[in-house]
Design a protein that fits this description.
Elements (H helix, E strand, L loop, with lengths): L3 E5 L5 H14 L11 H12 L4 E6 L2 E10 L9 E8 L8 H15 L4 E3 L16 H8 L12 E3 L2 E3 L1
Parallel strand pairs: 4-5
Antiparallel strand pairs: 1-2, 2-3, 3-4, 6-7
């Protein structure tokens, strides 16, 4: 594998990041969005989120192969020192340590900024044979030290089926 370089994502990275994200929206239940955002909307998301939270891109040979960001968890003031994390890795680059590198750097930066808790809200399939979801995210987050703190049953509806 090529050397992975982590850097801050920039609004001009929107097209590359969206190319990674779009298959997750259109082909999986990993994202609960049902339609991929436009490049302009994605650029705006990067700009808005990175104004307050770390937003990282992972590059290999000058090409973006993954990204991760922290964002607001809950609207109430008591949540101010908690951040929600999201990570997306190009489908052909998964299981190569990129997601771990991105999360570790996010966690390091958030701790430096005084954040106390980091959470991830992830999709759980109803069956192990689900064509749009798997247990991969649960396993990844477990390896990263996350512990299950709750379970929202059938809260997302996509591809004609319910997801936890």
């Amino acid at each position: 594998m090529s050397e992975i370089i982590l850097r801050d994502a920039l609004p001009e990275d929107a097209a590359a990041l969206l190319a990674i994200y779009k298959p997750y929206v259109e082909q999986t239940a990993i994202s609960f969005e049902c339609e991929a955002p436009s490049a302009e909307e994605f650029e705006n998301r990067i700009r808005t989120i990175s104004a307050k939270y770390p937003y990282l891109a992972a590059e290999a040979d000058g090409r973006i192969v993954g990204y991760a960001y922290a964002h607001e968890f809950g609207e109430r003031a008591a949540y101010n020192l908690t951040a929600e994390l999201s990570v997306y890795v190009e489908r052909g680059e998964r299981r190569g340590g990129i997601g771990r590198m991105l999360y570790e750097e996010l966690e390091r930066r958030l701790k430096e900024e005084g954040y106390h808790s980091m959470v991830a809200v992830i999709t759980a399939p109803q069956t192990e044979e689900d064509p749009y979801s798997s247990l991969d995210s649960q396993k990844f987050h477990g390896r990263m030290g996350f512990v299950k703190a709750g379970h929202l049953h059938q809260c997302g509806f996509k591809f004609g089926r319910w997801y936890d």
